[in-house]
Amino acid sequence: MDLVISRPEGLYCPAGDFYIDPWRPVERAVITHAHGDHARAGNQHYLAAAPGEAILRVRLGQDINLQTLRYGERLLHHGVFLSFHPAGHVLGSAQVRLEYGGEVWVASGDYKTEPDGTCAAFEPVRCDTFITDSTFGLPIYRWQPQVQVFAEINQWWQANAAVEKTSVLFCHSLGKAQRILHGIDARLGPILVHGAVEPINRIYREAGVHLPATIDAADIKKSDPMMRKALVLAPPSAANSSWMRRFVDYSDGLASGWMRLRGTRRRFGVDRGFVLSDHADWPGLLWAIEQTGAERLMATHGSSGALVRYLREQRLDAMAFDTRYGEDEEENPAPAEAELAAVLP
Ligand SMILES: [Zn+2]
Ligand SMILES: [Zn+2]
């Protein structure tokens, strides 16, 4: 029997009687990371990797019933050995390794193969079956090294500051914002953040991640000259809100893997797109899959069809798992079907 199956509530382990990142409330939820499409409220018991505890509590409530394990620490539950291993996606993100009856399954959650210095780097885990993220499971998705993207952001910021324009960069408030803060050249000017970003910054700093000083944009007056030289980080949901009225003259940009598609920037209506993702690109997915040594693959998220087809051509046993992952509001704007169809091979 399969160690993990798909149920209306989410991915379910029958032997251990628990769910992994369920999208409906259940009794026992094992959580890979704190993004909204994976960590939902309303579960009775939560189990997660220890470095993600503070973020989970900020997002789901301080009083949730949460048990944590260090990376690599093993828990025996109903005969199933369970452990968490770094996924390199955001602080505390983990792959879930399950071992039962001599068989090993790994559920990746979301993962990224390029280490970024803001969370534990992705560690491939050998297994028989690998449940893999395939958000960017198309050959067109190939990321540049992140240093190049940070250099582009620095350049854009510097050019805007030179003409007294604020640089407003939209990015996911959990993970992406901290990665950008960690990567950019903080000497270029003051850095302001949206109120959704600062609480997460605090948790990263407490975890020992170096982030430059940031100021809540709400604490700075519209007329303050520092506004005009500032880089501002805000979630994409702030883009068309009244929160933007505090900026007089600004250029805006969006940092997302979806920026690889030209239509996304146009539809979102920003001046600049920076291709920066916290998910593995196509070569990263194939590398990770190979490293696991798995003969059976289950793909979740977005473009699983193309990845499954490709893996089957490699004579691997691959299928798609129907999940609700990828619905995180902030992770939008994911491309429209038609837009994707245009770039499919
Ligand atoms: Zn995620
Ligand atoms: Zn996800």
Automatic annotation (TrEMBL):
<dbReference type="InterPro" id="IPR026360">
    <property type="entry name" value="Xnuc_lig_assoc"/>
</dbReference>
<protein>
    <submittedName>
        <fullName>DNA ligase-associated DEXH box helicase</fullName>
    </submittedName>
</protein>
<dbReference type="InterPro" id="IPR036866">
    <property type="entry name" value="RibonucZ/Hydroxyglut_hydro"/>
</dbReference>
<dbReference type="InterPro" id="IPR050698">
    <property type="entry name" value="MBL"/>
</dbReference>
<feature type="region of interest" description="Disordered">
    <location>
        <begin position="325"/>
        <end position="345"/>
    </location>
</feature>
<feature type="compositionally biased region" description="Low complexity">
    <location>
        <begin position="333"/>
        <end position="345"/>
    </location>
</feature>
<keyword id="KW-0436">Ligase</keyword>
<dbReference type="GO" id="GO:0004521">
    <property type="term" value="F:RNA endonuclease activity"/>
</dbReference>
<dbReference type="GO" id="GO:0016874">
    <property type="term" value="F:ligase activity"/>
</dbReference>
